[in-house]
Amino acid sequence: MLATSQRCLARSQRLITSSHLSSSLRSSSPPRYSCLLSTTSVRRQSNHGDVDGLPTIFDRPPASVAVLGGGLTGLATAFWLAWWHPQMKITIYEASNRLGGWIDSEEVKVKGLTGEKGSVWFQRGARMVNPQHSRGPLYRYDDLAFYLLVTQLGLSEQLQNAPETEVMGKYIYYPDHLVQLPDKSMTLLEVWQTLRKEPLFEGLFPSLWSFGKTRLRQLFTSTLKPPTQDAHSKNELSVGEHFTKMFGRSDLVENVLSAVMHGIYGGDVWKLSVQRTPFWDVLKDGRYPRLPPAYTWLDTPDAELLNWVRGDACRELAEDHLTTSAHWFPSGLNELTDALVEFLKKRGNVTIRLGHRVTSMTYAAKADRVAIRTSKQPTPITYEKVISTLYAKTLADICSPGTLPSLEKSTATTIRVVNLWYPEPGLNHPHKGFGYLIPQSVPFQENRHFILGVMFDSDREWVPNPHRPGQYINRGKDTIRGTKLTVMMGGHYWDHLPPHEIPDEQTAIRYAKNAVARHLGFSRATNDTAVVSTKLCKDCIPQQLVGHRERMKAAHEELLAAFRGRVAVAGGSYQVPGVLPSIRAALDIARQIRGSFHWQAATRAVETKSITVGDTGLWRFAAPVRSMVRVDKSGFTALRGHDRRLAIIRRKRAESEREREV
Length: 662
Known about the structure:
Layout: H1 2-15, H2 19-27, E1 64-68, H3 72-84, E2 89-94, E3 104-111, E4 117-124, H4 143-153, E5 160-163, E6 170-173, E7 178-180, H5 188-197, H6 204-220, H7 229-234, H8 239-247, H9 251-264, H10 278-283, E8 295-299, H11 300-308, H12 314-320, E9 324-328, H13 334-346, E10 350-354, E11 358-364, E12 369-374, E13 377-383, E14 385-388, H14 392-398, H15 405-408, E15 411-422, E16 435-437, E17 451-456, H16 457-461, E18 462-464, E19 472-474, E20 483-490, H17 505-520, H18 524-527, E21 531-543, H19 548-563, E22 567-569, H20 579-594, H21 619-622, E23 628-632, H22 636-640, H23 644-661
Parallel strand pairs: 1-2, 1-14, 2-10, 6-16, 14-22
Antiparallel strand pairs: 3-4, 5-9, 6-7, 8-23, 11-12, 12-13, 15-20, 15-21, 16-17, 17-20, 18-19
């Protein structure tokens, strides 16, 4: 049977790039939650003897599941399991006394310039998400998982958005002043003067020339078939090394890309793997067989997700935001986690254990279960399935020494977040917009406190009213207008600092206020009016360094060997860190347990090696190939469910009607 199963899987792999399957993606409309238990699947043996490493699906969903970690990934995983399986017993273990993880908001009482009282919301961690719709080639569709979650929680009306037409200025501090990155708000002359005069863009034109030649060479020397994942891993480089090779020099890497890496990961551009960043999705077309202009490559899991949600209401929400560049909730993304917590608390099959730090996790061979002990629960409790959303090194530490050596090597950055609110509005102007980042190339004397970046929260939440000059539209939950900033410091700069050398609260606040005053030109008197709050986020952003895939491939095998497929992992330690990837990882692992990964093509279902995430959640790292589908670009709007052009026209008409009513 095993040999037959492997032959079927190999045949499925060949079918995945066929035009027949590609056309079925546009024409078929599978049942929304149909469950595939294919006879060609390699199933767990009844005696649990050999685990061969292929993705397996349990013959039935587990009756009891433990979710380790009460952050966004853990809450979303528990939500979907409880949504689909009302009888499943689900227990969430959270070490702290609150749920939500690094997504955290605080309401603070303040006074305005004239003494008026009000309140503002300080946000830590992520505060917005960017939709991943694309006018060109199709790359990632994690945003569909976000829209699905928002729809099911009934939060569509609370979702705030910034339209594509709204230009949010982005800046980089180099070497001693803010430089605006070219955007639509600048004239061609202003763009040219910025690129020519600013030291930030030194080497831009020779770098672009070298980049263009490299890309052309890639396009004309593409292999006849997609390279294997192992081939990719052998040639893996850091972001810095990869783009230095592409540009022929390191100027833009040190001045621009390192700042971007600070904003996303708080990480070192010379250590982060380029394959684990958004850049890889943009560049991967040159590493696959050339296609006619009407076609593009799409990752098989993304194509399957598009097909799976086709009949869901989240499709309509995705259509409504085809012209949206960013999403958030009025008081922060905690509104999303709070809604998840409220839902889970009402479910009779969900138990939430706060203050329960997991101290050990072992495999009970006789019962074929996983035993969990916590700081408040010394007697082990066993579960049929455990899903860990903990930081990978923490997971390795609670297992027996040497059980998960690949995860023991995991690293993460620590970020100190300092929130500042000044009663005087617009203090950061004329530098309006999203905020600024500081690259690694800035001299130490200009960044001696290791600031990563500063966000202009008030510019995003208070926008000028186009119909009433001098007035502002409040898109947040603050009741009083001022200048609200978020300062991020630390990151990879603190990697080797012992805990006692990391700045304490008062020191960090002083550092942040002094840095902002110097960068934006605040006076000492203005600085003294700041209302401040801070939080140390220890190991909050896992770092996916060069060699990440090989480590995750090994971790997949280690989890199978130690727990026989009873433990799965999800979250930023494994997938790309961020809100959207976390929600997508939660959906994937919940669907794996449900058994609803499938293709529907004509009269048969096709299962491939890389659609599922497997019993460990890491199968896509271990799969021998990165499975791709050839997609007709003219049909990509059908994959979304609607025609983009017509949807945008309908949306503009609706906006015009609302404006006339106002």
